[in-house]
């Protein structure tokens, strides 16, 4: 690390669990962030600030005025711009040492190719097709997947890496075997979301990413964290593998 980098990351280096070696791991890490919205904004901000060497950003949306209530990576003058390009500029302003790559919408056809270039994937999308595609790609590439979701005043978060303990640790499809009926899906555009909830869950997702990259703490793999914003409460429930899961079952 250069003297400037040592000063920038000084508070990380002071941590026994991180130190200089841990910070070097972050500088060499490659993380794909799928969704540059309410969850993606704090995820990208904290990973860039932490010095994660390469951040891939996948999103095909443009910044709208209604995004600014929760998508803190963007400014009013970004309205109408591609989110990925605006996000890359914001990252460069925050930490010019961090490199970033742009990717299109994640689909079943391109997911594995995109995922193969990264050490870890974190997603905060409201698209089940993309989630299932990422789940399968991450299993195939043996890449950890951190998944966050929010709606109204609530959020959930977990880490999926079934390949680390086959038959015991679940994948995303063990949690959601089939896409829920349209009327049961929570959509921020239709149901609304308190902006601060995306900040809470996005920051927690960034924390899980950093824990995985540094191999510190207790992973959320095999557990689901639930947040109730109105009640001011967190709870964590066990999440077992589904022996009949078509994506990760050892018998599949």
UniProtKB/TrEMBL annotation:
<keyword id="KW-0067">ATP-binding</keyword>
<keyword id="KW-0808">Transferase</keyword>
<dbReference type="GO" id="GO:0004792">
    <property type="term" value="F:thiosulfate-cyanide sulfurtransferase activity"/>
</dbReference>
<keyword id="KW-0547">Nucleotide-binding</keyword>
<dbReference type="GO" id="GO:0061605">
    <property type="term" value="F:molybdopterin-synthase adenylyltransferase activity"/>
</dbReference>
<keyword id="KW-0548">Nucleotidyltransferase</keyword>
<dbReference type="GO" id="GO:0008146">
    <property type="term" value="F:sulfotransferase activity"/>
</dbReference>
<feature type="domain" description="THIF-type NAD/FAD binding fold">
    <location>
        <begin position="9"/>
        <end position="246"/>
    </location>
</feature>
<comment type="similarity">
    <text>Belongs to the HesA/MoeB/ThiF family.</text>
</comment>
<comment type="function">
    <text>Catalyzes the adenylation by ATP of the carboxyl group of the C-terminal glycine of sulfur carrier protein MoaD.</text>
</comment>
<dbReference type="GO" id="GO:0008641">
    <property type="term" value="F:ubiquitin-like modifier activating enzyme activity"/>
</dbReference>
<dbReference type="GO" id="GO:0005524">
    <property type="term" value="F:ATP binding"/>
</dbReference>
<dbReference type="InterPro" id="IPR045886">
    <property type="entry name" value="ThiF/MoeB/HesA"/>
</dbReference>
<dbReference type="Pfam" id="PF00899">
    <property type="entry name" value="ThiF"/>
</dbReference>
<dbReference type="InterPro" id="IPR000594">
    <property type="entry name" value="ThiF_NAD_FAD-bd"/>
</dbReference>
<dbReference type="GO" id="GO:0005829">
    <property type="term" value="C:cytosol"/>
</dbReference>
<dbReference type="InterPro" id="IPR035985">
    <property type="entry name" value="Ubiquitin-activating_enz"/>
</dbReference>
<comment type="subunit">
    <text>Homodimer. Forms a stable heterotetrameric complex of 2 MoeB and 2 MoaD during adenylation of MoaD.</text>
</comment>
<protein>
    <recommendedName>
        <fullName>Molybdopterin-synthase adenylyltransferase</fullName>
        <ecNumber>2.7.7.80</ecNumber>
    </recommendedName>
</protein>
